[in-house]
Every structure is written in C-alpha cells, then in structure tokens.
Amino acid sequence: GKLGRYPPWPGKIVNPPKDLKKPRGKKCFFVKFFGTEDHAWIKVEQLKPYHPHKEEMIKINKGKRFQQAVDAVEEFLRKTKGKDQASSHNSSEEKNRRNSSEERGKQAAGEEKRKASLAEGKLKKGTGEGKKRVSSVSSERGSKSPLKRAQDQSPRKRGRPPKDEKDLTIPESSTVKRVMTGTVAGFKWPPSVSEPVKDSDPHFHHFLLSQTEKPAVCYQAITKKLKVCEEETGSTSIQAADSTAVNGSITPTDKKIGFLGLGLMGSGIVSNLLKMGHTVTVWNRTAEKCDLFIQEGARLGRTPAEVVSTCDITFACVSDPKAAKDLVLGPSGVLQGIRPGKCYVDMSTVDADTVTELAQVIVSRGGRFLEAPVSGNQQLSNDGMLVILAAGDRGLYEDCSSCFQAMGKTSFFLGEVGNAAKMMLIVNMVQGSFMATIAEGLTLAQVTGQSQQTLLDILNQGQLASIFLDQKCQNILQGNFKPDFYLKYIQKDLRLAIALGDSVNHPTPMAAAANEVYKRAKALDQSDNDMSAVYRAYIH
C-alpha cells in the first residue's frame, strides 16, 4: 500500500527536553535517529540492540541514507569507546557488549538509564521522493500545546508523542545533546500495528513561533507527514496524508466555512476542505469557477458579504493587495457581512500594511481576523500539502485547526498581524531569486555549448538538489510553462519584498536584480505562465 513497511533504523536513547511530557501508555524512551535529525518516543518493547541485528538489517536495507545512518552509529561508538562497554568494537569485548545491551533491554521498563535500542516505531525521515518524514521533539522554550484540544484540560487528549522541532533553526545542542553514559546505538523496526486515529490529524505540523525577543513563546509542532499516533490504550497508528478523511482522523469543525477566491491555490484548498467533510460556501469573481465545487457539495454565495454573513469563518485567497482590499472594502464586500463574532482569514500574499489595515477594519466591526498566507503551488494545494503562515487572533488560529489540517502539511503561528505577510514575502523573495538564478545558469550553459540536461544532473547530485530545482528545470527543458505558480505573482512578491526592505532601509540587491528579469519576462507576455518561464527573459 501507500505506507509499506519501514525498515529498521539505527538510533540512540537521549535525554528529552526537560519540559517534554512522556506520552501516556506503556514505558518508552526518547530516541534520536542516526543519519537524521529526527527524534521520537519509542516504546520499550520496540527497542532492540544494535550489534546482534546489524548484519541482518544491512541486508534488508541497501539505501544510501541507511548506510549513512549506520556509518553515524559506528562513528558514535568509536567516539564513546572506553566510556561504556557498549561502545567497544574490539572483538574481545563484543560478547560482553552484546550481553550488556540485552540485559539492559530486559530492565528498560524500570530504569531511566540509556541503552541499545531498535525502535519499532513509525518514524522515518522522508526523502525528496514523496516519503514523509516523521519526527518528534520539543524545544526547551516551552511545551504548551498549539491547540486547545491538545492541552491538559482537554478530554480529547490522546497522549500524542511530543512535538517536533526538526524544521526549526534551534541548534540540536539546546534540546537533545544531554546524553547519559551508557548510550548505545540501535535500530527501529517496521510497524506491526495499524489502527485509525479518531480525533486529531496525525500528519499535521503546528509551529508556534516568536517573532520578537520574547523567550516565553514556545516552539512546537505536530507533524502531518507520517506520524506516530498513540492512543491511551497504547496502540499505534500510521496513516497516509491523504487518507485522513476516510478513517476519520480529522474531525471537521462544525463551524460553517466560507471561501472567497478560486484561483490556482484556492481551488485546491476548497477541494480538500470538502473532502475532509467541512461545510463550505464558495464565491468567485467569475462565478463559473464555482460550478465544479457546487457539484462536489459546496454551497454558492452570491456576494462576499453574503458568504461572510452566513458563515462562521470565511477564508479568502486573492491575487494582490488591491484585490484583497477591494474584496473587503468594495461593494457587497466582506466588511458589510462582518458583525461581532464573525471570523475572516485572509490567505492572500500581500504586504504587511495592507493586511494590518484590513485587520483594523474587521476588528472595528467586532470581527476576528487572522492572516494566513500559504507557501506552495497548485500541485501542493491540490495535494493538501501547503505550508501555512498565520498571525493575528490566536483563538481563531485554533478554531481553524481542522481546516488547516485539511489544506496543509504545516502551520506556523507567528504572532501579531503583519508578521505572516513579512515572512511570506521573504520566503517568496528567496524562491523567486533562486528561480531566476536557475534560469540564468541553464541559459549560460546553452550559450557556452554545455548540456542543460547534464547541468541538471550535476545539480541533482549536489547539495542544491531539491524537488523545486528538478521540477523547474524539467519545465524549462521540456518547454512546458503551464502555471503552477504564476510568473506575475512571483514578480509581485519580489516587488513587495523589495519595498519591505526599503521600509527598514535594508538592501535587497539580489531580489532587485531578479525582479528586473521577471519584469522583462512579463514584457515578453509570460505573466500567465509558470514562474519558470523567466527563462525566456534570457533568450537572445
């Protein structure tokens, strides 16, 4: 099936962050997996010693990443040689080390001492080929749940594994380097049980991030990709990211959802909201785009004001600052439907001044406001794998939980209104500049007599290798510029990012240069093509 059975993976038991609570149920230890930065709570009975199973596991898994993990184990054991019999590689000590490891395994349920471990958990770092990484760790900055339903007072709490900080920039030393003596390496084993999870989506990441020097804000995550989910019974489950509606792991909110704007991003978002069982009313400036979603079960709203007035939470995803303002302030606009308690979530990528102005007018009418621009493209939107950057009303962010789980793989809460807009522009500035650099390199290769395909092959073997790089290069090599992310919108984002730099007198020369190339591409009628069509700006 989609999940398959994951091979054993080497890991070591480490001290969890001091604020991290153990999941309910059976005895478990906090494990770091070699060759990755993934961590997880693993049950005692799923831990097995490294050396007795080493050769068998190497035969099972021939992958490069696995071999790198084994190499990391050996390096770790060499470094700790002499500190514990578990770290010895000398043949004369091998037997003692193995016996010691096995003995520790028997005693693991009653001790905190670190031991050899084979994790039969559901954890594996993903690769760029669609495998989905799972990891669980929490920062020392705090351990408060991002969702009320996940907090102690919630009757729904399921004893989930700890939250993940794999994607954060906090150094490992701040969380998991406090390793006790006696730590040895082990493998994780394939899952043996698979049961549906009833309440929360086991695949979704939530991050709560401080945007200022406020250390009290905690960093947390719940991973969407493939996730260990432990119920109070101690059973475990692992599910594909797109299987959640079928087995009920997302409980859709009973709030009525509105959605304004059915473009490349909005269409995929609405489709996933409907698939996950949400009640959705849609509106689009060109009404015919609504027809497909009406057939899928959506309701039709005649105006933005009507949608807002009949729904509890209304999302909007439109093209630029002008469109975002017109949608709210224009005739029969969002503002006319706002009354106390109504919620508005703007997912458009706009500048901070625009979103701040919209927030003020919504709140002035008693409404609640959240900005939630998304990082991704049409394909990721269709797959429900967007990255959501949210800021504003924290309670509204939590109320949007099931919606964000349906449409995205990761959600970040960034604090006050404006922060998400700024972060989104910076992300797209980097992406747009990188795209222009890719196009520049491919055209330079061509005019100097080098193979563009060979250049791509070389890049794909190096540190720049990524899905983005490969897909965009393939677009160029195939001459296929069907829009996945409109060129005109990435140019708009570059323009707004440059303005953001201007507002704080910060130089953005790379973005400025890239912006000029995109402007040339627009002059060559590439606006409605994919951003990779910036390539055509370089063709003489």
Automatic annotation (TrEMBL):
Broad class of the protein's primary localization: nucleus
Gene Ontology annotations of biological process type: transcription elongation-coupled chromatin remodeling
Ranges for region Disordered: 1-23, 79-175
Matches recorded under PROSITE patterns: PWWP
GO terms of molecular function: DNA binding; NAD binding; NADP binding; nucleosome binding
Presence of keyword Mitochondrion: no
Keyword Cell cycle: no
Comp. bias intervals (Basic and acidic residues): 79-132, 149-169
Keywords for this protein: Chromosome
Pfam families: NAD_binding_11 (PF14833), NAD_binding_2 (PF03446), PWWP (PF00855)
Protein name: Cytokine-like nuclear factor N-PAC
